[in-house]
């Protein structure tokens, strides 16, 4: 069960590193190569959005069908286990949201950089005329 969360954690970490690399100042040549490489990776990396959505649905389903342990019938160990499962579900939901948000941020950063490059080319053509 924990394998999908490890995969999602590594993907979120990789997306965060990529976003950091894209936002750091660097020479134009390195930045353009980096953006073109990441743009090629973005299409196959789109799998993370439906994967995270499926994991969110799984969290929701488990939350709806979880046994409630709030009364005096529960022992202290059962109550601790219940609270721990709630905290894990919350953590995993934040992880899913972060995966989607970081993917969108990397996509928009690449797209903005490409738009800036095309505008610079248009400006250069107008200056040459």
Task: Give structural notes.
The protein has one domain. It has 4 helices and no strands. Helix 2 (28-42) crosses helix 4 and helix 3 packs antiparallel against helix 4. The mean pLDDT is 90. The radius of gyration is 22 Å and the shape is rod-shaped. The protein starts with a helix and ends with a helix. The protein has helices spanning 3-23, 28-42, 48-64, 76-128. With 129 residues, it is an all-alpha fold. Keywords: Endoplasmic reticulum, ER-Golgi transport, Membrane, Oxidoreductase, Protein transport, Transmembrane, Transmembrane helix, Transport. This is Endoplasmic reticulum transmembrane protein. Belongs to the BCAP29/BCAP31 family. It is a multi-pass membrane protein. One of its GO terms (molecular function) is oxidoreductase activity.
Sum up the structure in keywords.
oxidoreductase activity, mainly alpha, 129 residues, Ald_DH_CS_CYS, Endoplasmic reticulum transmembrane protein, single chain, endoplasmic reticulum
Number of strands: 0
Q: What is the structural class?
A: mainly alpha
Main sheet properties: none
Distance between the termini: 63 Å
Instruction: Flag low-confidence runs.
Output: none
Mean pLDDT: 90
* Strand fraction: under 5%
Provide the succession of SSEs. Answer: HHHH
| C-alpha Rg (nearest Å) | 22 Å
Helix content: over 70%
Question: What global shape is seen?
Answer: rod-shaped
What number of domains?
A: 1
Query: Tally the helices: what do you get?
Result: 4
By oligomeric state, this entry counts as: single chain
Organism: Davidia involucrata (Dove tree)
Transmembrane segments: 6-25, 37-57, 92-110
Family: Belongs to the BCAP29/BCAP31 family.
Main location: endoplasmic reticulum
């Amino acid at each position: 069960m924990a394998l999908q969360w490890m995969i999602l954690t590594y993907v979120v970490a990789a997306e965060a590193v990529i976003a950091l690399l894209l936002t750091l100042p660097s020479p134009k040549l390195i930045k353009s190569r980096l953006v073109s490489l990441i743009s090629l990776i973005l299409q196959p990396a789109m799998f993370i959005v439906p994967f995270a959505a499926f994991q969110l649905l799984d969290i929701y389903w488990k939350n709806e069908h979880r046994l409630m342990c709030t009364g005096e019938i529960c022992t202290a160990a059962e109550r601790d286990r219940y609270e721990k499962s709630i905290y894990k579900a919350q953590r995993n939901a934040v992880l899913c949201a972060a995966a989607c948000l970081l993917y969108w941020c990397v996509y928009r950063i690449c797209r903005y950089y490409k738009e800036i490059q095309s505008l610079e080319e248009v400006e250069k053509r107008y200056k040459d005329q």
